[in-house]
Amino acid sequence: MLKELITSKDITIGLRSADWEDAIRKSSKRLLEKGAIEPRYVDSMIDVLKENGPYIVLGNHIALAHTRPESGANELGLSFTTLNPPIAFGSQNFDPIKLIITFSATDSESHLSMISELALILSDEDIMEELFTATTPEEFYETLTESVE
């Protein structure tokens, strides 16, 4: 499913951000451009993080940025953004964040197979190290898609 959802254009390498809020806004740019989300979706992601803390931080320096479908998700969307330098999101155990995976889903089920594929990748430390250190979107894409074959 990942191969059907993304291209190298959905990957940003070495994004510079002032803080976690700026990182979320910038990492959402591709999904906004594609029309997968509306601007209010980005605002909702930030508001929910402010209210609930860094629940999107999954571990291993990874954040899975998302919010409720009714907050402006138009279609299933996915983008990847590496941060340079890494950014603190307020997670004691897993800061700083090196990778933001931004996704949108229009319901509670359409994204489950995508999340399953991501879980396999995210649990492999060798693959994650390659993703963290990728220097081009094409290199990141190749590592990501080869790992789900």
From TrEMBL:
Organism annotation:
Virgibacillus oceani
GO terms for MF: kinase activity
Recorded superkingdom: Bacteria
Read off the SUPFAM superfamilies from this record. Answer: Phoshotransferase/anion transport protein
An example of a Pfam family matching this protein is: PTS_EIIA_2
Q: What does this protein do?
A: The phosphoenolpyruvate-dependent sugar phosphotransferase system (sugar PTS), a major carbohydrate active transport system, catalyzes the phosphorylation of incoming sugar substrates concomitantly with their translocation across the cell membrane. The enzyme II UlaABC PTS system is involved in ascorbate transport.
User: What's the protein here called?
Assistant: Ascorbate-specific PTS system EIIA component
Q: Which GO terms describe its cellular component?
A: cytoplasm
Task: Report the PROSITE patterns cross-referenced here.
Answer: PTS_EIIA_TYPE_2
